[in-house]
Amino acid sequence: MKLKACLGACVVVFSSIVFAQESPKMTAEEKAQMDAMMRAATPGDAHKKLATMIGTWDAKVKMYPMQPGAPVQESTGVSENKWVLGGRWVQETFTGNFMGMPFSGIGYTGYDNVKKQYVGTWMDTMSTSVMTSSGGATGEKTYEFNSTMDDPMTGKTMPVKSTMRIVDDNQHVMEMWAPAPDGKMFKMMEITYTRKKS
Fold first, then answer.
1. Which of 35, 62, 75, 77 is most buried, most CB within 10 Å of its CB?
2. CATH architecture of the domain with residue range 46-195
């Protein structure tokens, strides 16, 4: 129902814009509405910065335990990133393994022109929930995101923090922190992406 309502609202807005374009008596309010919609819909420089993520990558995953001294779990995977929806979003399709089981995930990262921040979603085979993220650049090649995801142990939403560091055109590193049972944030994961050689 929410999707239908959203699509219906979009039809109404775009219909009014098309009508306004065809009408010789477009009001200042209608023109402002049209301009705002076009600004919101047009990819810009912030989207272009995501171009370094495009390609196929070999991923080395490290999962860190909450208990001190416990071994780090390591695995590998392949990530394929491509532009979708006319350069508005980067779609990541990940395949690999987790705790000895096949694992796959799909995520989207883009820049919200209205909120003026990077936003993202992530879904995978270890959950039926969606993780949502928002954040921004903290440097020329570094990004920080705050996310929320459902905790299967408590049934409640928990905060997650992640960073992305662009090493160069052929490598980037993602790190993620989540709350331990005592509430303190601990580094739970690190993924190093290296561009796959053709």
1. 77
2. Beta Barrel (2.40)
The domain limits of the chain are 2-41, 46-195
Strands 171-179, 117-124: pairing is: unpaired
Q: What is the mean pLDDT of residues 57-77?
A: 92
Nearest to 54, CA basis, from 87, 18, 5, 13: 87
**What's the pLDDT score for residue 14?**
54
**Across all residues in the chain, what is the average pLDDT?**
89
Entry field: residues in the chain:
198
One-letter amino acid at 133 equals S
Q: DSSP E strands: which ranges in 40-184?
A: 55-63, 73-84, 89-98, 101-112, 117-124, 131-137, 142-150, 157-168, 171-179
Distance between CA 82 and CA 101 in Å, rounded? 26
Tell me the HSE value of 78 on the side-chain side, using a 13 A CA sphere.
5
Q: Let me know: does 193 contact 56? Beta carbons within 8 Å.
A: no
pLDDT band at 3 (very low <50, low <70, confident <90, very high): very low
First to last CA, the chain: 45
